[in-house]
């Protein structure tokens, strides 16, 4: 994978309920603000509309050197030239997705609150795993609720990037990154913001701040051992 397109930072997921024009405009603002990944997830739309929207978003992502991921559907991902696909529990295997998309595709897997699922997903070749919902979510109100400590536990045993999802807001974000999340998957807190670009920029600055703090801590620890 191109290191400039790694799974890290703000990972926005498209919401339902917006017109195509509004959706595309808000995705463009999120990317301008610093989103590094976009997942196309639009439930209940006609397939032809999905193709049109997904292709437009793919173009926006390429222009910003961001990863474009399609939710659930490897065939749609292949049709629109996406970088990869995100798989839930009922969306088939990593191997099947790679058979459709090719070996260089980015394949992410939802692991909910199960570390053993993440270990198995990584063993099968997943490029990243996702845990959540960490907080109450209006998108998936019945989702399982893992503790933030799962991220720290996963960080100790996994080599692949870890994504946190579910009810994430800016004031909740730093704790998840500190606990071990490489990326934060956000829907409502970005796309329902009054200024999408500004909110995305705030997330981008948060990641930079947490990374700087971690580097300073590691440097201090190293100096103490000299």
What features would you describe in this structure?
- With 226 residues, the chain is an alpha/beta fold.
- The chain has one domain (3-224): TIM Barrel (Alpha-Beta Barrel), CATH 3.20.20.70.
- 47% of the residues lie in helices and 16% in strands.
- The chain has nine helices and eight strands.
- An eight-stranded parallel beta barrel has the order 1-2-3-4-5-6-7-8, surrounded by eight helices.
- α2 links the parallel β2 (37-40) and β3.
- α1 (20-33) packs parallel to α9, α2 crosses α3 (74-80) and α3 runs parallel beside α4.
- The model has no long low-confidence stretch (mean pLDDT 92).
CATH topology: TIM Barrel
Our count of domains comes out at: 1
Question: Based on CA inertia axes, which overall geometry fits?
Answer: globular
Number of strands: 8
Arithmetic mean pLDDT: 92
Global Rg: 17 Å
Task: Sum up the structure in keywords.
alpha/beta; TIM Barrel; 9 helices; about 230 residues; 8-stranded parallel beta barrel
Concise overview:
The chain has 226 residues and is α/β, with parallel strands linked by helices. It is built from nine helices and eight strands.
Could you outline the blueprint of secondary structure elements for this entry?
Blueprint: E1 9-13, H1 20-33, E2 37-40, H2 47-63, E3 67-71, H3 74-80, E4 84-87, H4 94-101, E5 106-112, H5 115-123, E6 128-131, H6 149-157, E7 162-165, H7 170-179, E8 183-186, H8 188-191, H9 196-224
Parallel strand pairs: 1-2, 1-8, 2-3, 3-4, 4-5, 5-6, 6-7, 7-8
């Amino acid at each position: 994978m191109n290191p400039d397109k790694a799974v890290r930072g703000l990972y926005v997921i498209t919401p339902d309920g917006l017109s195509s024009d509004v959706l595309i405009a808000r995705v463009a603002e999120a990317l301008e603000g610093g989103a590094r990944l976009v997942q196309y997830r639009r439930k209940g739309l006609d397939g032809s509309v999905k193709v049109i929207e997904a292709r437009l978003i793919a173009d926006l992502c390429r222009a910003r050197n961001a990863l474009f991921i399609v939710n659930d559907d490897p065939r749609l991902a292949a049709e629109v030239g996406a970088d990869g696909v995100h798989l839930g529990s009922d969306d088939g295997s990593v191997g099947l997705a790679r058979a459709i998309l090719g070996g260089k595709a980015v394949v992410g897997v939802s692991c909910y609150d199960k570390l053993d699922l993440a270990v198995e997903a990584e063993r099968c070749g997943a490029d990243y795993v996702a845990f959540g919902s960490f907080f109450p979510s209006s998108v998936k109100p019945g989702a399982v609720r893992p503790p933030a400590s799962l991220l720290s536990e996963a960080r100790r045993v996994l080599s692949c990037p870890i994504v946190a999802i579910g009810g994430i807001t800016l004031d909740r974000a730093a704790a998840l990154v500190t606990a071990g999340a490489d990326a934060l998957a956000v829907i409502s807190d970005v796309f329902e913001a009054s200024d999408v670009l500004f909110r995305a920029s705030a997330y981008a600055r948060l990641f930079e701040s947490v990374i700087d703090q971690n580097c300073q801590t590691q440097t201090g620890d190293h100096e103490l051992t000299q």
